[in-house]
Amino acid sequence: MQIKQKFYSFIEKYYLLNRAKVCDDISFFTNEINNVTKGDLLEFNSGTECLNWTIPKKWTVNQAWIKDSKGELILDYQWHPLYLMTYSNSFKGVITKEELLPHITTDKKRPDCLIYNHRQQYKFNDYSKWGVSMPHNKLKKLHDGLYQVNIDTTFSEGKLLVSRKKLMGATKNSIFFGAHTCHPGLVNDGIAGIAILLQLLKYISTKKYLKYSYDFIFGPEYYAGAAILSKREIAKNLKSGIFLDMMGNGKCLGYSKSFNGNTYIDFVTESVMNKTQTNFFTRDYRKLWGNDEIFYDGPDFRIPTIGLGRDRWEHYHTDKDDLENCDLDQLVESYNFLRQVVDLMENDYIPIRKYKGPLYLDRYGINFDSQGDPEGYSNIQKIQIMADGTMSISEISRDLDIDYFFTFEFFEILFENNLISKEPYYAFDE
């Protein structure tokens, strides 16, 4: 099966589940992910304190619909999970249109869309409100009169689940990849990133040798970050990370910087962007989408984390974020991008010259025209000066502001000619 078809099949199977923070559907989905990764399934009971966040109660939707005075359905949770406000309370009764309207979420600017009404699931033990969502054009057609509302939900003690798979390398120091399991009925917003990362995990697993360890973390947005970081034995080895969102929405690829903005993961991402993308953008910390980097790269932990994704689009948090509006070719592109990020980190090393003085380039068939390519010729000289056995390829490239891949390819030519040796380079202290 082609990788594009794998992405489609995975997303189609799970995206319409009611993937709220704690509920049966998201537990089922997380178990399914964990069955694929063969990882650790971490459980956090409702009410558990993770940092200063509290795991919410389990939310169960038994049914949710509204009928007009003729007995005709005007909305039903069974049609699409976004028709019901996430973590809505129960309500049963016959009410007027005027009484109903304050409980409907709509958007005049996107009149044909269902809007993801999600704020109540972040309330601290307050699930008192009930609500639904409706396209604005449909809302305008509601007639005066009475409406029968039947929203039957329950709140109970449950478990928030996080799937975590660690691939062990030569060092316990780990780079993590994450995407959120929540957001019912949405595709680019979360689940597309999971589809990509499951394939990336397979790719990294095929490597015979790993320099770094790699953590793959899948759980509900925000709560998973708080839960993982509350586990000191996990958190202490996380050294850098990439969080995925909006991976196939038709816009160009880009990323938001870590809080520091000048870390190893920033450099690696920028280098691969320059190599693979004809057009990309860079945003400051959390200025793209803003996800769990608020925890990982937040107070106390400061684990450099970038947000990888595509630019803003009109279908954000609506039912139009569906498979029809997910560019599968972009998912493949994003997957290949991440492979190159991993390869760069794994292949970065410290070059140690075996010769003295400037290299007699022509002797080894290394041709740079000092007149036709004066910058390249000058860079070759600078690179050799810096290759004194104390700096990695990435450090040399950063110090000289030279493209990483230009520097890497030059040193590979030297290595093939037995002119340098390679010393392993680890970007993070033990």
User: Mean of residue pLDDT?
Assistant: 95
Helix content: 25-40%
Provide the β-strand percentage band: 15-25%
Kindly, what is the distance between the CA atoms of the first and last residues, rounded to a whole number of angstroms? 40 Å
Structural class: alpha/beta
Low-confidence stretches: none
What Rg, in angstroms, do the CA atoms define?
Answer: 26 Å
* Order of strands, widest sheet: 1-10-12-11-13-16-14-15
By DSSP, the count of extended strands is 18
User: What form results from the Cα inertia axes?
Assistant: elongated
Structure description:
This protein is of the alpha/beta class. The protein has 13 helices and 18 strands. It has helices spanning 3-14, 24-37, 97-100, 136-139, 191-205, 223-229, 232-235, 264-276, 293-296, 328-347, 374-386, 393-400, 404-416, and strands at 40-45, 49-50, 53-54, 58-67, 73-76, 91-96, 104-105, 132-133, 146-156, 159-167, 174-180, 213-219, 238-245, 253-256, 281-283, 305-310, 349-353, 420-424. The strands form 5 sheets. Strands 1-10-12-11-13-16-14-15 form an 8-stranded mixed beta sheet, sandwiched between helices. Strands 5-4-9-6 form a 4-stranded antiparallel beta sheet. The protein has a two-stranded antiparallel sheet with strand order 2-3. A hairpin with a 5-residue loop joins strand 4 and strand 5 (73-76). Helix 5 packs across helix 10. The radius of gyration is 26 Å and the shape is elongated. The model has no long low-confidence stretch (mean pLDDT 95).
